[in-house]
Amino acid sequence: MGGTKNYNDKAEFDAYKDTYSKDINEAISFIGQGQDFFTKVKADYLLDIIDNIQNRESPFKVLDVGCGHGLIHPYLKSRNTLIKLHGVDIAGEVIDIARTNNNDVMYKTYDGNTLPYKDNDFDLVFAICVVHHVPPSERETFFCELKRVLKPGGVLVIFEHNPLNPITLKVVNSCEMDRDAVLVRQSSLKKLLLRCGYKSSFGMFILFTPFSSYFFRWLDKLLARIPFGAQYYVVAKKS
Q1: Structure pTM?
Q2: What is the pLDDT along the chain (239 residues), one digit of tens a residue?
Q3: Measuring CA to CA, which residue among 46, 4, 30 is closest to residue 166?
Q4: Residue-range domains of the chain with CATH
């Protein structure tokens, strides 16, 4: 899995601005599903989490950290019009593409250290497959910064690759963008979040199969405690 790509190196990520989806689809082509399938599955899980905590009488402010091209944003906005969605990334050229494609989402760039938002600003913050690009020595600082912009009682959702799944390892090792990725186990991530001062955390494993029918999505949830899904998510709350 190599060394660690510096998450703050925006040029590294801007370099993939035009080939991002192509590179990922090539890496996962043997699975029989494209990137869009996996994006939609994560959107469904995220929307379920939001549905469980959102007050439907007022807007719900959400931040996507490391949002990239904003590919998940149309799915989120189409199903929940009360979400006030913000996206932030270190790659300015990528953010320009996201802004062009999603004119109803508010985008900003940042330096990878301090988010350009005030304290206690968001109801929910999420990051999808970002942590494995953050050097392990900097992850505690990263999560503390996410906590800073969450409102008291706000929720953090982290989606990550599962290093216990051999197919996931094959995909990561064959994807140029992930050549220096350092994956993190769900159990280690939950411990880190508690160490950063989050009140509680729980996690689920997802994507046990690459099929989209209702039965296989139901099966995914049935198997969610077994640590062999291709990816996982962790939900934590700010006290």
Answers
A1: 0.90
A2: 233 334 555 555 666 565 555 656 666 766 778 888 999 999 999 999 999 998 777 889 999 999 999 999 999 998 888 899 999 999 999 999 999 999 999 999 999 999 999 999 999 999 999 999 999 999 999 999 999 999 999 999 999 999 999 999 999 998 888 888 999 999 999 999 999 999 988 999 999 999 888 899 899 999 999 999 999 999 999 98
A3: 30
A4: 10-238 (3.40.50.150)
Pull the structure tokens for residue 214: 């209702």
Which residue shows structure tokens 């989050």? 198
Three-class SS of the chain? CCCCCCCCCHHHHHCCCCCHHHHHHHHCHHHCCCHHHHHHHHHHHHHHHHHHHCCCCCCEEEEEECCCCCCCHHHHHHHCCCEEEEEEECCHHHHHHHHHHCCCCEEEECCCCCCCCCCCCEEEEEEECCHHHCCHHHHHHHHHHHHHHEEEEEEEEEEEECCCCHHHHHHHHHCHHHCCCCCCCHHHHHHHHHHCCEEEEEEEEECCCCCCCHHHHHHHHHCCCCCCCCEEEEEEEEC
For tokens 């800073």, the residue is 148
Provide the token pair at 163: 């290093």
